[in-house]
Design brief:
Number of helices: 3
Radius of gyration: 18 Å
Oligomer: single chain
Largest sheet: 7 strands, antiparallel
CATH class of one domain: Alpha Beta
Length: 171
């Protein structure tokens, strides 16, 4: 058994980050290997369709174990060679910021069991990339005054002036 925990700070309010990340329909937008996601029983079970090497597509059903909207989501699957429990935590960081923590606890089965350390390393690397993708997506949409689906929901944030940036050339 191993645990992998990664985190990212996102310059978007907790309510937006949590609502977007907790909806499996949005998973394909920020998880590299997820092709689609949907609720099977809203709030209770969902399915993710993932692309796995070498060119396989896998349908994984997840059970929601705990959900505190805007704070925490815990879900698990017992399918496949990597049964896993995943936890999302959203922590407010200032009035418009969020720290999202993504934690996976996995108990690899054969044929992955002997490669547990390698699997954990690959998972940590993938989680970092996925969280960066989520950060970019939400911050870009927030700056454009759009929700993550691309719909305008407020005036765009003014672009920062170059001369105000601490790393601007000539300062």
């Amino acid at each position: 058994m191993f645990e992998v925990s990664t985190a990212v700070r996102i310059a978007t309010p907790v309510s937006r980050v949590a609502a977007f990340a907790a909806d499996p329909a949005n998973a394909a937008a920020w998880y590299a290997h997820v092709r689609a996601g949907r609720w099977l029983a809203p709030g209770a079970t969902f399915e993710l369709v993932a692309a796995m090497p070498p060119g396989r597509t896998v349908h994984l059903a997840y059970e929601v174990v705990e959900h505190e909207p805007g704070q925490r989501l815990v879900f698990r699957t017992a399918q496949g060679p990597l049964p896993m429990t995943t936890t999302y935590r959203w922590i407010p960081r200032g009035p418009d910021g969020t720290e999202m923590v993504l934690r996976n606890q996995a108990a690899p089965r054969w044929p992955l069991r002997p490669a547990g350390r390698l699997v954990a390393w690959v998972m940590r690397r993938a989680n970092r990339a996925d969280l960066q993708r989520l950060k970019s997506l939400l911050e870009d949409c927030d700056a454009a005054g759009q929700d993550a689906a691309g719909q305008r929901d407020r005036p765009p944030r003014p672009a920062p002036r170059t001369e105000d940036h601490p790393h601007a050339l000539g300062t």
